[in-house]
Design goal:
It comes from Planotetraspora thailandica. Its main location: membrane. The protein has 16 helices and no strands. The chain has a single domain, classed as Growth Hormone, Chain: A. About 60% of the residues are buried. The chain is mainly α.
Amino acid sequence: MYLAERGPAAAPASGDVPTSDDVQPGRTDRAAQPGRALRAISGTVFALGTVSFITDISSEMVTAVLPLYLVAGLGLSPLGFGLLDGVYNGVSGLVRLFGGHLADRGRRHKAVAVIGYGLSAVCKPLLLVAGTLPVIGAVLAADRTGKGLRTAPRDAMISLASPPETRGRAFGVHRAMDTGGALLGPLVAFLVLNVAADGYDAVFTVSFCVAVLGVLVLLLFVPGGRAPEAGATEAGATEAGATEEKAPPVTLRSALALLRLPDVRRLTVSATLLGLTTVSDAFVYLMLQHRLGISEHWFPLLPLGTAAAFLLLALPLGVLADKVGRRRVFLGGHLALLLAYGLLLAPLHVGALPFVVLALHGTFYAATDGVLPAAAAGAVPAELRASGLALIGTGQALARFCCSLAFGAAWTAIGDRASLGIAMAGLALCAAWAAYALRGQEAPVSR
């Protein structure tokens, strides 16, 4: 199993895989003390965070202009955009399970991640020649295939390089660095659109160059290899290495059998139901523009509000999740999203409205995007870590794919406000169910 370097704190041996967010009574988590949160993070996490930082600059440059390019530039209807947006998010979900299984089966998490990042980079210049819906859809599908391949191996590397009691903050650090790129991406796109004569083509070209840089950093600075889980004792590591050849092979059936584990099943069902009622980011930004009359010139800057809140809160909420319980923070993030939807529907016309909505939107991601895999890692055995994370992520991604299609169709048929009202009601019901299903299944990891 992959491990770039040893975690800073001791954890159970790889053969004693902890259940979801296990607690060791009386244990003092020194890493949780003020000023030590970052010291508890493995160098592997920072290296992968750098890769994600660079890659997100590239991908968010495209994401920031894509809605406007498709709807205003190519004249797509909301239904057509919903289809493409669904492809953009759903294909990665379908491929994620395969990527996780491939990484576990070959014990080569880094190699699979490199393939995924490389495929996404190659797709960026293809947008220059994609002018019709089928071609754009194919390019976006290939780009999301790359994302699907890399996500589970990358998250598995983060979890395996981090002891259980610091996984929340480890994912928080990674997501903060990732979001730093998401924050810069729209700014770069905004600047390129304003200085380049050919506008969108220049954005796609610069995005490709940045994506290539991210792949190079991954190849050169992220270690690869096979090793036991972070924090494993030396005896446990030796025993794991001695028995690795005798371990049963990782198969797709063994990965799907993870759903028999109660914690994995509850997390998967909860994430899937909540994903069914989570409106795509692009639709949130389009609704803000539609409601407030924001000019097309400023539209690429809207994701900055979400990214800024995400960046500021990812690490604090990761530390909080380690202390009070990751699933509590995960559900709290969906309450923030409910508030954002409510403000979009409320008859308010104050200038601060977009800032509050985007801040709540970013809070939702800070409380869920890294917290969910941190919670899932404790429920999945180390030898199936990438497969387990992919299984839960696939359910969530496919659900969001269905939501994009349904929301785009509903917007076309009954308008944006009515569609959001239906989504908000569904999200409230699903959040209530998830709170009931996940009750009593978790205790804090650090104290």
